[in-house]
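Sat 14:20. Reprocessing the chain from the morning session after the first attempt stalled halfway. Input below, unchanged.
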Amino acid sequence: MLARALPLLALVVILATSAYGCLDECAQEACDAARVPRGGDAVEQGVTGVVASKSDVCEDGCCACSWAQAELNVWRSDAPVDLAQGLLLVQREPDATITADRSYTLALEPGHHMLCLRDTCARLELARGELFTVNVQLRYGPPSLLVFGPGDDDPRDDLVFSVNRE
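Finished this time. Tokens:
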């Protein structure tokens, strides 16, 4: 009888160890995806990205990061977008609103555009055939936009600004 029970007991121990191991991992897939440009989307011209949420509650050195949702607003501009132009654009309704659930893609015409999550914005100077990546990282405090122009491997801080409306 003991000989028959040993394989079953071994299986229970392996399954319990595997289940505990999965709980012990620190979920980072969403934040890892937000740190790099996104490719292979359904549109060849416009903007695409992912939405990640980094927890401010950390346990054993792990601040878990999960997929999230965000509402993004996009404005088209007749002039290059800087802070002054951005403050003018937010006075009117956006040209498009994206409800992003984990990821999003939006086709845009060439030209000057501004994409915002609340008061944090990205300027996009889009030429024909170009695809920008604007990844969102939510956290305690203001969100981060990680903007990658066509061909960029690193995010461009020079394309991100705040349009504090207060």
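DSSP finds three helices and ten strands in the chain.
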